[in-house]
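In the current project phase, we have settled on a layout for protein records. A sample record is reproduced below.
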Amino acid sequence: MSRIGPTAYKLRDTFPACEDAPLASTLVRLLARGKPVTDGRLAVACERPVAEVSTQLMRWPNVERDADGAVIAFSGLTLRPTVHSLQVDGRLLHAWCAWDTLFLPRMLGATAHVRSVCPVTGRAVELVLTPDRVEQADPPGIHVSFPPVDTTDTADIISTFCGHVHFLAGAGAAEAWQETHSESHVLDLAAAFELGCRTTAPLMAPSTATECC
């Protein structure tokens, strides 16, 4: 649990600053509709000039675009299929890593049915998450793996961080993971959920945000 504060402080650099929260949260919610988001569409939704929106998006790390220039991934939410899927309002979405699925329901203000796979046991991991809590988790005792924060390049979060973040199906799987990944650490599901809430706090409305350091 003591890792949560420093880890949240480091990882929050992958998200836009608090003053950009309205634009960032609008982009996430538009992306959750399941279609690529153009700068023009985002500008209309935010009632801001297209040039201003485009300039801001260029400043943000980890904004992925398709061949036509539309945004297809941002803040852990992606339209490209991955092993980590979310069913939100009847739409199939995906996440860059296991941990993303824990905080995306909070960012979207919606319940999500999550499905992933434990890389140690091959067992399916299924969760039901609301914006405020984990409602269901199968199997019991799920953990989440994390690479060393000091090796994470926040400008390239997908390759330096996301590829190492998995759901582990129980304490035994967590122990087995650490035996072969001694540089990594694991958090239980409750702690990983709390970490997500604290790290993404800058993207939440001031009335619901909490400090993440």
